[in-house]
Records
---
Amino acid sequence: MNIESEGRRNFMIRAIIGIAAFIGGVVTVPLAGFGILPVLRKKAAAWSDAGSLRDLQVNEPQERRFLETVKQGWQEEKVERAVWLVRTAEGGVRAFSPSCPHLGCGYRWFSADRQFKCPCHASVFDIDGKVLAGPSPRALDALETKVEDGKVFVKFEVFQVGTAGKVAA
Amino acid sequence: MIKGLIDWLDERIRIRDLGKAFSDRPIPGGASWFYVLGASLLFIFTLQMATGILLAFYYVPTPDHAYASVKFIQHEAPFGSFVRGLHHWGASFMMVLVALHLLRVLIFGSYKKPREVVWLVGVGLIALVGGFAFTGYLLPWDQKAYWATVVGTNVAGTVPVVGGVLLRIVRGGTELGALSLSRFFAIHTYILPWSLALLAGLHVFLLERAGAGGIWNAADRVPYKAEPLFPNQIFRDTVFILAVFLSLASLAVLFPAPLEPQADPTDSTYNPRPEWYFYFVFQMLRVFEGKLELIGTVILPGVAGAVLMLIPFLDRSPERNPAKRKLMMGAAAAAVISVIGLTIAGARAPIVNEPAVTSPSVLAGRAVFGRSGCSSCHSINGRGGTIGPDLTHVGSRRPEVDWHLRHFRDPRSVVPGSLMPKVDLSEKELRELTDYMLSLK
């Protein structure tokens, strides 16, 4: 068989490896990006209508449910959300995410004790969301609110649980 | 490091023997740029697998969601346009490279003894590639996808006796719909890739058993002129693959894969056209019309396929030099010229439906018609319900704008005893719907 000189043979082998690496690299970046990047996209929070302000009494927390339009990839869905709303004496409205910052359980307002209590690991919060007892690493997660035409609007967001800082999930 | 690993493996499973058996396969008469086509097809197939699997991350094969998911891939997902572009243009490249590979083997006489079975498997591979192309372009569920597939599947319906049953099997029902889409998706992403991978493996394995054909001139097929597959031939393969890849990637970037409006089964103004590589079939259907249709749809393709398979058994002389195989070369040239001629004629075929001069308000009206559920009672061009009157020619029957407006607001005011409910739409929508009604003549 006609075997090439060592130099030419080595050149061909290097060219084969080089071209394969080039094509592999050029293809891998967009393919991996296409497969992974959309998952890493943070969803932009949007205002949702959380009901009227009138029915909300000062310093009496109320749970409100509403439908948020969520776009997942190509699909738009209406997802049911809940928030705790507190009307403050100054006339503003505060909103808390419905998940306990410890491990994400749903907590409730106990009006007799005037405390929020989590049923899972007994974290306790005051009306401002401050931790009074239990394992929760941070205060309840406040959400942005605004009042327009007598209606409360909430920017619903989901946060990572179990961390000391409030980080969007 | 790598050498250590190879030593370790070699000591256990004699991996160097394997590598040597592969790399030392002799190419009779030496490596050549003519032999790069098969390797480039393997490359394109691998790339189609990679891009196809990733497209399936987002694609949904149902009529409700297919179009939206492809639109998301095309316009929103990072690199989506590029990945879909690679897959789209990859199909065209596959077609061209398959044709060139077939011609190369034909001209070099490489199909002759002892490689007849390699040829047979190759013909099977061509059929699979055609199946990929046909099932692939229904998936975006846009106008082109829908209408080209309506026409394409109807071809199956022209087969004598079993045509009707065949059509139902292909479509998963009498009409093109949800069942057709999921069935085409399953064929495109499960049946065909597995079949192609198995047959392509067999193709290469059989070639390995029979030995590469090399150059046609027996005097050049002597041991001292042979060159090893690796690196001599693989080097040429790789450089050609680089050229193929660069042109494919440039096309994907410069000419994104098209996406027409969503499939609209009620649209009667669309001009269905297949992808360019099916133009020759499309043109054949135009040539053989009416009673002769069967020639174009079943007889000619059947005969062509059978002849292609039988070539190594019909042409058994050991002569491989194309200059001395005038009959075979003449037949091949005639076949190539006819396919190219039919393709060009198909591309130039006049448009049957005038390009839609539809006004925006008629289009808007059609959309109102679609989303208001009118078609559950009324048919247009044979599609829709039968409870209410057929609206295909309602514009000629009822040309008065006022009549329609009054009718929509309160059907009984103009048609006593009408069962039609009042249409609850805005003034603008009623006007649009009326314009659409008047356009149906």
Note: Chain A touches chain B through 26 residues (CB under 8 Å).
---
Amino acid sequence: MEQALKDFFANDAFMPHGHCFLWLKQILWLHVFSDGLVALAYFSIPLMLLWFIRKRADLPFKGLFVLFSAFILLCGITHLFSIWVLWNPDYGMEGIIKLATGIVSGITALVVWKLLPQALALPSPIQLHKMAEASRINEERLNLALSGASDGLRDWNIITGETYYSPRFREMLGYSEKEFPGHIDSFNNITHPEDRERIAAELKKHFAEHAPYNIEYRLQHKNGHYIWFNSRGQAAFDASGKPVRMTGFITDISQPKAIEQMKSEFISTVSHELRTPLTSIRGALGLITGGAMGNLPEKVTELVGIAYKNSTRLVHIIDDILDIEKIESGRMETHPKTVPLAELLKQSVEANHSYGEKYRVSFMLHDVPQDMKVTVDPDRLMQAMANLLSNAAKFSFEGGTVEINAKRKDGRIHISVRDYGQGIPEAFHSHIFEKFAQADGSTTRRSEGTGLGLSITKKLVEAMGGSIGFETETGKGTTFFFDLAEPPVSIMEPTPQTNPSGHSLRILVCEDDRDIGMLLRTMLEPAGFIVDNAYTLAEARRCLLERSYAAMTLDMALPDGSGADLLKSMHKLTTNPPPVLIVSGSEMAKDIGSQVAGVMVKSHMSETKIVDTILSLIHQAANSKKQEIL
Amino acid sequence: MAQTLKRILCVDDEEDILQVAKLALETVGGFETRQCNSGAEALIEVGQYNPDMILLDVMMPQMDGPATLKMLKGDATFANIPVIFMTAKVQPSEIEQYLKLGAIGVVAKPFDPMELPKQIEKLWKQLHAA
């Protein structure tokens, strides 16, 4: 084999045929012409292919095209060299060129073989045509559906900002394609300024949690007025979970919004109009039942009592209807604050004490940790608790107990109200939170409620970011429970205000109005003060005897006397009287005696103002003491 | 300004409510009262009656409660007479608005006639406490 190869390449064993071309000139030129023509053609093909690759950026198998171009180019050079060697015996170079052509053609063949399955998977022109036709039909169907549904389509490329708006989208807003270019900025520019923050928050939630994107917002029509739209959408995410595209629809909801507004105004007007005659009816009956008109015959008193009781019930129904309407229309005012839960629950129990007495039921509030706080509108939480407590009292047996509890569970605060009554009939479980729902017949007495209390409570709890539920057992009672988020530690634990020796500064708030007392507490605690509430003069005296205070606020009109009495006896109660800030109901109270350090009008109170004033009083008191020592 | 609350001017376009308020304030509270059916009437009556306090309805035709209060506050003679609004519109923002206008308090409708004198007395005491 080795000898055969040696013989094959040996000059004497292998004689090339030479370039005689039978010594015919015509044959020689035929070869020159045909090789030249082939070379020319071969050179043009790579040029055409390279131009094609450049023009078609999305061309598949680009590498193969390059390889093929190189192969064809080398073939062309081979043919050109065949002409060259007719007159110049550069057989070595010719061999090298042929070798290069062979290598490149071999690689090309291998690559083609490898890519063949992928190439076969590509749609054929017929398939492409069918797909295009199906796509056209789908688009037509979508456009028809959109035009029938009067919805606008938006397809937003989140990376580039480029956005497709369907013709209907622009039509609803009165813009032409030129006036409303295909970019997300066009949309952003016409959103109502008040809605922007809400839209951004909803998008953020959708991108982060994949929560359904369903929002109502206003867009500005070309004519300047705003239109309400409902928008639904879905984002597409890349492999890393980053949103890359979002497609969605907008529906004009201005008409239902207007109807909703009319309904809301109607309910509000009717409710307020009903209150006017009710004020007279309930007022007149109240004067009679209250004994202001003297004694009446027993039967008349009984009948007037029934009329008075039911007029009061009617007032509650109207109040509840108004509350439901306010919550459903989003007009319920809420003022969330971070407040200690124990104090709120204590107030709830006290406020509903008389209700419990009416049914001879006692409320028992279990110990609630003092550091347990919630961020809620205190009035709304009190309202929700009032509904649950009154409900529990109504459905308890006489002499029974209603237990109120608050515990931490799974990072949230769970508040429960438990009664030991008859329990809720199973058939009623699914309707319990519906409006005007009342289970009767199986209870020992008919309830006197409006049938809206639990529905309102559910909505209030949900508005506070919680959820409500119940557990019930026939003959054993019912527990209603709801959960609320516990505010972050940063909100709950402010930097404590301390004196130079490092002791925390304690403030006494003496105020008989529990709401204002609570408000002052919630203003002062976040600033780092420890706050004690006193609701009567007696409580304030006890606090001053027991503890030392850096400052105190004082309401002058207290149930068991005037704040002025406390001021007079202050030196008898403590050797270190705190500076006193009078928190008064009116401007006129500013003209106050010299024994107090400052006066603040309740209606002008603000968190910053009260904290600054208290700090300034403490500072002044400290300075005056230094001067006394000096 | 008087230190003892005695004379109260009640203003409401509803005759029946005026009657209930009168009975409550006079019979239960022991005050003297006079009644007006409109804001305009109240502006005339206030000069003649010289009340210690005005109980003023918010929603009245033509001149409503807030407009009446503004007129009173604009006249130095009556600017210091404390005014309490009577209204069914008692959302926190609405109450804040009434207080900003210069009212010293709000009585929610429907009011309890047996409690009305106490409510008014409490606001009066708060005003004079200092």
Note: The mean pLDDT of chain B is 91.
---
Amino acid sequence: MKIHRVARDLVATHRIPSLADMYLRVVEDDSGDLEVALAPVGAKPGDFVITISTSAARYAATGDKSIPTDLTIGGIIDHWSEERWHD
Amino acid sequence: MKIFRVEGTLVATARIGGLELHRLLVVQDRSGGKQVAVDPVGCKPGDWVIAAGSSAARDAAGHSDYPSDLTIVGIIDYWDEENEEQAASADNRAAASAGNGARR
């Protein structure tokens, strides 16, 4: 799992049916690279989160593997700081 | 999922049987690197899209045996990079015309 920061919401109305109405967020890593993650926990922009990648992301999304995602937010970190992130 | 911009359709008439069903697109990541993605959504060139990799790419393309490692799963409604670019070019034009005005 990795630590990401939520950059913003993402709206994609036209999507494959199996992604259903799941929420998406743009997240950035410590070097500023952007990715899109499924957000089942409702993280806000600015929140530090842990993300689960590869096939585990699918199980993290709903408990089964029906959602085709390769990055899912697993939780919001209570205490984390910019300095600690870049160490 | 990764963010890409659609560059165009890719035609590959001779292809393995498993790759039938969907068209292929050339997509560019934000730093300009090109990859090929399966498109079950129906994108136009210039669209900003999100694409899944890993096993999600196979299932997103239709079934778990589909041989894809990059599949488009949605079109982004609004991606501000374009507007940032437009804003930047507008700023440049404004700066340029201001510069011209100063010279005149």
Note: Helices of chain A lie at 56-62, 82-86.
